[in-house]
Amino acid sequence: MSFRVAVRTSYLICGLLLSGCGPSRPNADAVKQDLAKAVPMQSTPAKVIEYLNIKKIGHSEYARDAKEGNLIRAFVRDKSKWDLVRTDVAIEFRFDDHDQLVSYEVREHFTGP
């Protein structure tokens, strides 16, 4: 094998490892758009949990906490197997004292070296 072929092969392998294989990485903007349609403000915790279960999104139970507030945390997991850095989407739903959804935050969460 010539030096050029070895270098090209190395670049190809590195490129595949860094880019992952397939569209298994969640998209924060797409998650925001889907939430805006499916989970309106003033929704109950039960409605939010029902949505998360239907979409098969991992989540915490509804927590009432005087310090952090009333919330549900969820993660849309990156299912790629070859990425060095995994990109999940974290969602935090916040509720008022009457158990009505008042806000949610969607952000990317990176895990890796």
What does this structure look like?
The protein has 3 helices and 4 strands, in the order αααββββ. The protein has 113 residues and is an alpha+beta fold. It has one domain. Strands 1-2-3-4 form a 4-stranded antiparallel beta sheet, with helices on one face. It starts with a helix and ends with a strand.
Topology:
Blueprint: H1 3-19, H2 28-38, H3 45-54, E1 58-59, E2 70-76, E3 86-95, E4 101-111
Short structural description:
This protein is 34% helix and 27% strand.
Largest sheet: number of strands, sense, barrel closure: 4 strands, antiparallel
Helix content: 25-40%
Strand order of the largest sheet: 1-2-3-4
Any idea how many domains? Answer: 1
Structural class: alpha+beta
Helices, by number, come to 3
Mean pLDDT: 82
Rg computed from alpha carbons, rounded to a whole number of angstroms? 19 Å
Q: What series of H and E elements makes up the topology?
A: HHHEEEE
End-to-end CA span: 33 Å
Report the portion of residues in β strands: 25-35%
Low-confidence stretches: none
Global shape: elongated
Total strands: the figure is 4
Features:
four-stranded antiparallel beta sheet; elongated; about 25% strand; about 35% helix; alpha+beta; 4 strands; about 110 residues
